Amino acid sequence: MQSNLLSFFSKTPTQNRPSEKKTNQFFRTSYSSPNRAFSTTEPTFSSPIGPTSPLTPRTPVVEDDESLRPKGKRRRLVIESSDEDENASPHNSPVRCIKTTENVPNNRTLSISRSFSRDSPKTSASLCTSFDEDASKGKDCDVETSFLDTSNRNDSFALDETIEGDFEGNWPHLSLPFLHPDRIKDLNGHRPNHPEYDPRTLFVPDDYIRAQTPGLRQWWQIKSQNADTLIFFKVGKFYELYHQDAVIAAEELRLSYMKGKFAHTGFPETAFEKMANQLLHKGYKVARVEQTETPEGMSKRTGGRPGCEKVVRREICQIVTPGTWFASLRGGISDSTSGADAEEERMNCSLNESFSSYQQPLSRLDAEASLSRHLLVILEDRCAKDGDSPNNFGVAILKTVTGEIMIGQFSDDVHLSRMCTVLAHYPPAQILLERGNPSQKLKTILKSRLPDVPLENLTPKKQFFTASETLEILNSANYFALGAAPKDHSEAEIESAQKRAHWPGELLKMLDPFDPLGRTPLNNYELAIRCLGAVIFYLKYCLADTEILSLGLIKEYQPPDVVSAMPGLSHQPFYERQINMVLDSVTLENLEILSTGIKGSIKGSLLERLDSCCTPFGRRLMRSWVVNPPCHPAIITRRQDAIEELMLLAPQLQGVREGLRRLPDLERLLTKVHIMSYNATSPDHPESRAVLFEEGTYSRRKILDFLCTLSGFKATQRLVSTFASLSVRSEYLRSLTTLKSEGGAFPCCKERLAAFETAFDHEKARSEGRIVVEPGFDPEFDTARQNLDDVKEQLDDYLHEQSRIIGAQLTYTGTGKNRFQIEVPDTHTRNVPDHWEVTSQRKGYRRYRSPEVVRLFAKLVTAEDAKEESMQGIMRRLFASFAVNHADWHTVVKCTAELDCLMSLANYSSTAAATTCRPEFFTLDSGSQKPFLEMVSGSHPCLLRSFSGDDITPNDLRLGAVPGWKEQPTDGFKPGITSLLITGPNMGGKSTLMRQTALLAILAHLGCHIPAVRFRLTPIDRIFTRIGASDRLISGQSTFYVELAETAIIVRHASPHSLALIDELGRGTSTRDGSSLAAAVLRYISTPRNGLPGPLTLFSTHYHSLTDSLQDLNVADQQTVDVGHMACLTDGGQSGKEGNESQRITFLYKLVPSACPKSYGFNVAHLANIPEELINRGVKMAKEFEKATLVFTCLRDILKGQMSREVALAWKTRLEGLASEKTYTDGVTL
């Protein structure tokens, strides 16, 4: 049905009308853009709170009574479905037809394309949201009433078409003075240039609001308090948008404008998930406004009150933003439309497909679904006025998939490298900042790196709470006790210490242990606690604080390069204090680990090469593994053993892989079940009062998701029995697939799952969209059901007794409120007691109602209401009983995700190349082993998929003190070098070799087999890269500045255990300055200091003077650096010999000793199709430049006075040869 309804609002291509351009231009000026960048006015966001409580959301409740539509002649159009199946999938509904009612002329038909085309505005249809004629006369009906009375069928809806009035696109809101850019204000009267201007609110004059119809007055009151949010205004079964919101919706959602005097559009209630998701992806915020009163409730409220406005109440029930779009309660997460049993049935698949065939490319939607959105909060503490000293940062990262909140505090360098790493590891969908807090440097980084991510400023203290206020809110709200155990409303108050007993352990470690009230954080966590306060405020603002914080998933974030300061570990190897290898944002980008190219496509990246995971939660964990490789040899060895055994078991694990492939996204489902168990539980939450016309559809989706969750967890339990039959030897693999009771890490959940299996009829719940639990599962429902059965039994006993007294077989008859009328044959009416009341009659019978039946019937109605109320809450209680074991379910997901990742890495190890090896790690425990890296016949891991094996040239590389290398042939390279200077022709493979070495080192730390004959190394603590040349225009950084900034990070932070890649440093400036800086950096990183060697370094360059500068090093320093080049063949022979500039060359892509005399840049010019005339001219100029350089070099040596006779004769011969040499271009001697 959903797709059919949406087809009526599909947008046709628009004409370029001046009025529309004016609309869009004005709205972009007056409406706060979702992609807000920093401005000089520092816009603020005031708190959505009332005056009574610091966390009470301000959701206006308005009582109005009139139409949102201009009044005019109407005609009713009933749109009916041609399919009677109410359970059909909304995405596969049949095409609907339109039939007109009898008051529409028969000679006029209305087609879909004609009715809803934006190119035919005069015939566009409007939703039935206006009052009928009776409504304006004071009868008890409103917008919803007229809609509900349209048809009794569930598969039809009505539209009213406004006949009079022409749509011209000249919207009234364009002429409103208070919306004019020169007059716009917030609720406090501040203009946009005021430092305290709040773009979240809008000043709307009271006179204008009073002049509106009550319906529009209700909308304007909500809009004035949520000016930066699109209002989805519920009217009947539709969400509608008005004025400036309608302009945005029509443009972004491709909806058509409805007929009327102002901008107006809408869509069906069931399309909320789709529409909201599209807007959130584009950076908008959405407020869902629901009816919180039924027409009957409105009638009771307004009855007997002349002049009272008769319209249902509406309130904001949910605000969703790009960073707070948690598991939706409207749309299903599982992809099964036929029920959970189909999912379970597909889990028992046949073992037909091979293990290596599961690596399939992810579609764009799969990739988006598998990634987690993050809400990032940043707070900066500037330590110095000059901005050159390190600043302290507090961060909070909210993961929308799991509800986990990571908070941390750290210092950063002048380049904010740690902050950039946070942005790379946890790409945010939305960023919250404290107004006036961020420095200009932080603003520039956020603007340049995340131009499309919406930024929102919170008011200090009022919205961005202090640390003590944050802790007080956590203590008073008692969020964590909600997740630990059900609420006990009988207790008046719990002591602070008892409340904190449920707090997350990592949060408690951040508090001062000497504060008995727990309201003082430690000094090094104050910024982190404040960021947590901003998250709490924003969740409260979005009406989702209880659902998320009750999970209790608050953990500490530490930058990956932070080394533990635990006593006794200072003299231990670095990996005893550092968990993971550090891959900062620069390295991730330069090595193309997560994405490639300007558009950030995953295709061709290392992650795409490794990720053949079968589950969405496995893919998310794989991404985390790739950016955080372990560096402890013991952890790496455990993973290597597991991967190696999985490679051997591949033929037997085909069914396991297929089973994992059929699993739903258990991680998201688990979060959704928890949210559903707490959603709308508080009577103060507007959602508890919301009237949903499609509640049955939503309940069915929830039930299907819950059934998929149960079947998914049942399927994971079978992993244990599968691996138990395989006699696994790997300790790590055995831990993941062995029950906790047997010494493993996998929780045993069979009994809990069995209890839910028998708790209710799954098939009935799936088909009816409601759950009726079996007796004994829910005491509250059992009591309500028993009371109802008792009343029914009393009615039956009474009827049986009266039949005996009257002497005839009596029966109950009637429906609804007329139920339980006693039907007596006319032949026995003389025996009826006088106090019985006659209610009706039919031929041969009279119907009575006795006082006792009236009493029992009232009791029955009360019991039925109690049962219905209990049944409405039974789904929530059922979900809550499941979510109470959230920790165990989460452990199951974690074990399954790790197994999925291991199998993916095993799949890569099996298919990486024809020849692979298991990397060998050497520990640093003895202290005698120095850092080294040895690669024998290694190949680039990402290029093997693009070329056949014969096209890839493997390379050898040795850096550091390689064990046993002195006894082996050195192939011309010095033993024990820590730095290798690589020269060679353009496009000869220098950068590829450098990236290849780093990627193979990452794969080794991940535990994979890699494409090489042998790969030995000591653990690497961090990989640095200075590769490529690009400027950052938005940041105001030139190419040369970017090069030096990345080099500065290497020089300042590299350790002997680091791997540094420096590619062509200095090319962004003059040759003299660039070569001098490159020589200085090379000398610095290759020189040992304090008895420690420099980092393992690959340094490529086209400055051939660098090779000459190595001769100036002392003997000891010369032993730490060597020169090699990427070999090639020229017309005159090997590349190591002198030759003419424009000789055609053949790349060999092989690293060999010694320097390459030329870069052969003119060969690239030939390949790039530069005109020959230009190449010839360039060759001639290059020759002249080379001669001048040699003459000056000779003169310099002569002036030094240290030239021997032999050297002088050599110079003479060389200069004479240059003087007689003729220029050679393209095979022609000039």
TrEMBL record:
Keywords: ATP-binding, DNA damage, DNA repair, DNA-binding, Nucleotide-binding. Gene3D superfamilies: 1.10.1420.10, DNA repair protein MutS, domain I, MutS, connector domain, P-loop containing nucleotide triphosphate hydrolases. The keyword Ion transport does not apply. GO terms for cellular component: MutSalpha complex. SMART domains: MUTSac (SM00534), MUTSd (SM00533). One of its GO terms (biological process) is mismatch repair. It comes from the Eukaryota. Residues 1-17, 24-56 have a biased composition (Polar residues). Residues 1-99 are annotated as: Disordered. Residues 1058-1074 form the DNA mismatch repair proteins mutS family domain. One of its GO terms (molecular function) is ATP-dependent DNA damage sensor activity. Belongs to the DNA mismatch repair MutS family. Component of the post-replicative DNA mismatch repair system (MMR). This is DNA mismatch repair protein. It comes from Schistocephalus solidus.
